[in-house]
Amino acid sequence: MKIKYLGTAAAERVPAIFCKCEVCEFARKNKGKEWRTQLQTVIDDGELLIDFPGDSFLHQWQHDIDFNEIEHLLLTHWHGDHLYAEDLALRMSGYGQNLDKILHVYGSEFTKTFYDRAFELEGRFDESRLVYHTIRPYEAIEISRYTIYPIPAQHGNFVEDCLVYAIVDRETGKSLFYTHDTGMSKDEDLNYLAEQQIVFDFVSLDCTGQGFEQSGPVHMSLKENVTLIEKMRALGLVGEGTIYVASHFSHNGGLNHEAMQTLSEAEGVLTSYDGMEIDF
């Protein structure tokens, strides 16, 4: 499998549009890896796209991504930095021309209400261009060559409206645990994954709180990442070769890229940056 982080920031991005904190001013001056756009991830060169934020147009330009060729979009939740459905509505006939693929969109029932709203504003739907598939926690689905296990995220309304995902490539046997935006996984959810006998090759961790002791109930810090890794190790969900990457950073976390990288690598966790690509 291959993962590429098109964006690695929380909603405000870094530098935040309206902020003059130390982290944002440092990013404006130094650019490079300090600049972060809203989190979006592509798997295996476009076989699977995770989330569609408002920065998707920018990602298309920055990373030479052709969204016309992507057929499967997996949504974690309904917040605008993960689903900007107004741009998805521009895929309908009358806006986009000469498209030969249908985009299949997958997300929770609650997320669908935000998806539907964009099309209701347009006054129509167009399932010759886009089809929404409602998925539910603990009900595995097959998308392309992947088996995907939706797990409730500790985020949003805490009523299974937000999801994280275990993704298994049936062709290679490789597996990914994609856990953004969420607080600490519940023990019952980790036990469910252990029952599926998955040993993850890659874990992508929410680290909005960076070096904080904790990041509240809806996100995680590096210390909470380490606690989660320890829980997963105790259940046999990860092994010696598992790759851990922290992402979804906020300027309010207080650390620039180098400072975060120094902190995370001491714990065996890589710090992501926009454009980061890893084969595993």
UniProtKB/TrEMBL annotation:
Annotated InterPro entries: Metallo-B-lactamas (IPR001279), RibonucZ/Hydroxyglut_hydro (IPR036866)
Pinpoint the Metallo-beta-lactamase domain residues.
Answer: 63-234
Query: Which Pfam families does the entry link to?
Result: Lactamase_B_2
The residues forming the signal peptide are none
Q: Its domain of life?
A: Bacteria
PANTHER family reported for this sequence = HYDROLASE C777.06C-RELATED, HYDROLASE C777.06C-RELATED-RELATED
What protein is this chain from?
Answer: MBL fold metallo-hydrolase
Which organism is this entry from? Enterococcus eurekensis
